[in-house]
Write a structure and sequence with these properties.
The structure is a single chain. By secondary structure, this protein is mostly helical. Among the domains are: 156 residues, no CATH class; 33 residues, no CATH class; 65 residues. Helix content is 81%, strand content 1%. The chain has a two-stranded antiparallel ribbon with strand order 1-2. A hairpin with a 2-residue loop joins strand 1 and strand 2. Helix 3 packs antiparallel against helix 7. The longest helix is centred in the C-terminal third of the chain and has 192 residues. The two termini are 105 Å apart.
């Protein structure tokens, strides 16, 4: 046991020495865990549930850090002991939350475990606030446990709860206080309804005072005020105000207790009402019986009348059938001879018809075969046409796809051409600007050379022959020697891609000299000299 305590004390001392690093690492781990939780929550389709769990964990960590400071700095407990007790409130709150969730699933309300969770959250917040060193920290440590519990409570009771059997109702709550002070009204009412009710009550109040006062000057005052209120009221509002006043004036009579005589009158009226109700019931029953008997008699009469009509109709039908049979027998007797003759003729015609029918049947068979062949031909043609239509649709789809691809290529080519034109335009503008700047520099240089007096060089040597560059004399550049001009022209010819700075380094002269030589000898003259 001593070894365990020493190990725990050593671990606590190490944690105390590396507190800042551990806090940073814990925050980083918390951020990573929160990011992983958010990613998994988004994939699960319920991100609010996972974020709620993450917020509860972060809130518990905040409160646990406050309890660690209280245990180690306020109470001066040993670190080995504080390790086991600094999360006691978090364990109790988590236990109450789990029990409340189980009770909510089984009984549709959190029960006493929900109240226990709120009690632990309030106590934990108050105790954690005592570890604060400033009012802001005190408020923050007090608010975090309460907000965490509130968020958990909203998620638990979001779908509604059933009141337990031992539920109570507060006599005074914020809503009832607001209603009692006249700052709120029960139910959902819009601004128009509230303003209308206010005007009706004002009219009723002034009207009641007008009809109940005995002072003449007060009555004149109330009449003037009633007229002023009536200017913004309609007929329905005036009728409602009148009903309010009548209700007030009759309230005494309507709330007066009932005396013995009134009770007797009420009892007599109630007995008469019961007797009238019983008589009405009996009359209704007799009427129902009479109505049933009348309906039965009418039904019997209708049945008998229908039977009589059916019998008469049947007799008339039998007489007509007898007459028809007599006439038929006489007709059969006279027509029997004719029938035998016609039978002989019919037999001959039947033989002829049989022969004709055999020939027609043969023709029909041939025609049917021909039509069957035509149908098969038409079906094969329809199948070929359908195949051709499918191929044509495929070719059209391919052509449309090719047209779309060509349109995209054309659009891309047009975009590239516009970009190239824009770049060329910019390069031409830059070249024109550079040329203008070069011309301006040449003019400035010429003006400077014209305004600066030159000292005559003293030469003791005789004039030498002019230097030649590709068969032409080296042009004279003010302030630059002929040999230097020749060297610059030779370097320019050998290295046409070099810049002025690179040419200056190669010839070992200044950039200004290179600029003066190139300004005096344009590239066109160099090209002509080279040819």
């Amino acid at each position: 046991m001593n070894d365990t305590l020493r190990a725990v004390s050593g671990l606590a001392a190490w944690v105390r020495d590396h507190r800042d690093a551990l806090v940073v690492g814990g925050l980083a781990l918390t951020v990573l865990l929160l990011a992983w939780t958010v990613r998994k929550a988004i994939k699960s389709g319920r991100p609010d549930k996972w974020l709620s769990v993450g917020s509860v964990v972060v809130g518990f960590g905040w409160s646990a850090e406050a309890m660690w400071e209280i245990a180690t700095q306020k109470l001066h407990l040993a670190a080995s002991f504080a390790v086991f007790v600094f999360i006691v409130f978090e364990i109790q709150l988590a236990t109450a939350m789990m029990r409340a969730e189980r009770h909510q699933r089984e009984h549709k309300h959190p029960g006493k475990y929900g109240r226990t969770a709120w009690l632990i959250a309030v106590v934990m917040g108050c105790v954690a606030a005592m570890a604060g060193d400033s009012p802001v920290e005190v408020a923050l440590r007090l608010a975090v446990p309460l907000l965490v519990t509130r968020q958990w409570w909203d998620g638990l009771t979001g779908d509604g709860t059933d009141k337990p059997d031992d539920a109570i109702t507060w006599t005074w709550n914020p809503r009832r206080v607001l209603i009692g002070l006249g700052l709120a009204r029960p139910g959902a009412q819009d601004l128009f309804t509230v303003d209308r009710q206010r005007q009706i009550l004002a009219l009723a109040r002034v009207s009641h005072r007008l009809h109940s006062t005995h002072w003449r000057w007060r009555r004149a005052w109330y009449q003037m005020r009633l007229r002023r209120l009536s200017t913004t009221a309609d007929d329905e509002m005036l009728d409602a105000a009148r009903m309010h006043v009548e209700r007030v004036w009759r309230s005494a009579d309507r709330t007066r207790p009932i005396t013995g005589e009134d009770l007797a009158v009420v009892a007599a009226a109630r007995a008469e009402a019961e007797a009238a109700r019983a008589e009405a019931e009996a009359t209704r029953a007799e009427a129902e019986v009479a109505r049933a008997a009348e309906a039965e008699a009418m039904a019997r009469a209708e049945v008998e009348a229908a039977q009589a009509e059916a019998e008469a109709t049947r007799r008339a039908d039998l007489e007509a059938e007898a007459e028809v049979l007599c006439a038929r027998v006489e007709a059969e007797a006279t027509n029997r001879a004719k029938a035998e003759a016609e039978a002989q003729a019919a037999r001959a015609e039947a033989r002829a018809e049989a022969l004709r029918a055999s020939r027609v049947r043969g023709q029909a068979d041939a025609t049917a075969q021909e039509w069957r062949r035509r149908v098969e031909t038409a079906e094969s043609a329809a199948a070929q046409a359908a195949q051709a239509l499918r191929e044509e649709q495929q070719r059209r789809h391919r052509a449309e796809a090719q047209v779309d691809a060509d349109a995209r290529v054309l659009t891309e080519e047009q975009r590239r051409r516009e970009a190239a034109e824009t770049a060329a335009r910019r390069q031409s503008e830059a070249h024109a600007a550079a040329q203008a700047e070069l011309d301006e520099l040449r003019q400035r240089l010429a003006r400077a050379e014209a305004g600066t007096p030159r000292r005559a060089r003293r030469t003791t040597e005789p004039a030498a022959e002019p230097l030649m560059f590709h068969g032409a004399p080296v042009p004279a550049v003010p302030g630059v020697g002929a040999s230097t001009v020749l060297a610059v022209l030779q370097a320019r010819e050998d290295h046409p891609d070099h810049t002025r700075k690179q040419l200056a380094e190669h010839v070992r002269v200044s950039d200004r000299t290179i600029r003066a030589v190139l300004a005096a000898v344009p590239d066109r003259d160099l090209a002509m000299a080279g040819t």
